[in-house]
Design goal:
Layout lengths: L1 H32 L12 H8 L10 H12 L2 E4 L7 E4 L2 H10 L10 H10 L1 H4 L10 H15 L2 H5 L2 H18 L11 H18 L13 H16 L1
Antiparallel strand pairs: 1-2
Helix pairs in contact: 9-10
GO molecular function, one term: heme binding
GO cellular component, one term: membrane
Cofactor: heme
Length: about 240
């Protein structure tokens, strides 16, 4: 009796799955039929974008997030940023679009990685990294193999508990840093506070990946060797 009921439930679940899958495919097909061409995506031309970053331009010395917000107001929620010497970027300011993208990017999603890191691993130190892309710079089957191997570990809540003490220490040091540098009257952070945020990120990563406390938020902040690491990581981000 239980066996028959179990099989019946499996059949019902399978039918529901097939129905939902068929409906999703129909919706996707209908959406693609009404999709506009790439040329119809609004955005500045290459010349307009270059001019905007020159002295007196619209985006000269403007924070990146404000630039994107301005483009959102001018061109809408989806716009294109032309590349001067690389690949164009299409950006969306609508969170719902990201759900659609992530659900339809397939088994091996392609993501642009840090080109500096990619060059370092594939060319400069190929003898060390050959055959191992990693999660941040890999794509395709190699990335899928790595992701499959680490998923059971990274996605377990109990794994996060292993690093709780280290991360709490980093968080406490960051709070102390905030108390030390903020304006006592306005409670505002200094203009270079972004440096402290970078230090927070680096310290957090080192505490988890290397199980090491390097003191970027406190006693070792001005250490020359540590500053070399910070500058190198900054180069990776800015040049990547």
């Amino acid at each position: 009796m239980l066996s028959k009921q179990w099989n019946a439930n499996k059949q019902i679940a399978s039918q529901i799955y097939q129905l939902c899958r068929g409906l999703a495919q129909k919706v996707a097909a209908a959406s693609l039929e009404g999709a506009k061409s790439y040329a119809d995506i609004p955005g500045p031309s290459k010349l307009q974008l270059i001019r905007a970053f020159l002295p007196g331009g619209r985006y000269k010395n403007l924070p990146v997030h404000e630039m994107f917000l301005d483009m959102n107001r001018r061109y809408g929620s989806i716009f294109r940023m032309p590349s001067v010497a690389g690949t164009d970027m299409v950006l969306t300011m609508n969170p719902q679009d990201y759900e659609v993208i992530f659900r339809n990017e397939g088994q091996y999603p392609y993501r642009r990685s840090f080109e500096v890191m990619d060059y370092f691993k594939r060319v400069h130190r190929r003898e060390v990294f050959d055959g191992y892309d990693g999660l941040t710079s890999g794509n395709g089957p190699a990335w899928g193999k790595m992701r499959t191997a680490v998923n059971p570990i990274l996605l377990q809540p109990r794994s996060a508990k292993l690093y709780m003490t280290n991360l709490l220490q980093v968080s406490d040091e960051f709070l102390e840093r905030i108390r030390a540098v903020r304006d006592p009257v306005t409670q505002e952070m200094p203009d270079d506070f972004v440096v402290d945020i970078r230090h927070l990120v680096i310290e957090s990563i080192c505490s988890v990946a290397l199980n090491t406390h390097i003191g970027l938020l406190g006693e070792q902040r001005e250490d020359k060797d540590i500053q070399k690491v910070v500058l190198a990581l900054q180069d990776v981000v800015e040049l990547g």
